[in-house]
Design brief:
With about 260 residues, this protein is mostly helical. Helices cover about 75% and strands about 0% of the residues.
Length: about 260
Amino acid sequence: MGALFNPDSPLMDGLNQLLDLVLLSLLWLIFSIPIVTMGASTTALYYTVTKVIRYRRGYPAREFWSAFKSNLKQSTLVWLFLLLLAAALSFDRALCGQSEAAIQSFLGYVFGILELLAAAYGLYALAYIARFKQTLRGIFLNSLLLMLINLPWTLLLLVILAAGVFAVWLLPIAIVLVPGICALLAGLVLEHIFGKVMTPEDRQAEEMRNHPERFDDYGRRFAEAEEAEKRTAETKPQIPEERQVFEQTENNDARF
C-alpha cells in the first residue's frame, strides 16, 4: 500500500498530471473571461499542456503565464480576425433566411461547412502561434495550408472539439477539466502535423530536449571519441550523430 502512494508511483504521477490539467483548465477559463483575450489564453493552454503535461518540462502556472504574455499580440490579432469571420458568416446566414425554403436548406449546409472550417482554422492558427515563431502573414497562410492538406486530421480535431463542447453542455462542472484534456488530445494530432514541416535537425534537437533520457550516453560517447582522437593522429573518430545535430541546432529558437 505504501508503494502505491509513493510520490514516484504511477498512481500519484497520474493524479499530479490530472491536477495540473485542472489548474490549466481554470487558468484558461479565467484568462478567457475578457473575450478578447481568449485567443491568447488558448495559445497559452496548448503551449503549456504540450510542454508541461506531455513533455514534463517546466511548471504549469509559470509556463502558462509566460506563453500568454509572449503570444498576446499575435494571438489576439488572430482571434479578432476569427471573431470577425464568425460574425460575417452569421450575418450571411441570417440574410439567407429570407430566401426560398430550398435555397435556405442548401445554403444552411454550405454555411455549416464554412463554420466548421473556420473553427478548425482557429485551432490550427492558435496552436501554430504556440508552436512556431512566425510573421502574422505566415501564421494565416501556413495554418490554412496545413488545415487543407491534412483534412482527415482536421476532421478528427473537430470531433475532439465537439466532444469537449458536448461534455461541458452535458455536465457544466466539467469545464474545470475538459479544456486541458481537449488541448492534450488536439496536441497529439497537431504535433504529428507540425512535425512534418520541421527539418530533421530541428526534430532531432527537440527530441533531445524533450526526451533527454534517450540520450543518456551522449556525453560518454563524445568523451570516448575525443579520447580516441588524442591517442591517434592518423584517424579522426566519428562524432556521434546526436552531437552533430545538437551543434547545428543548439541556437535554434524553438518553442518546445
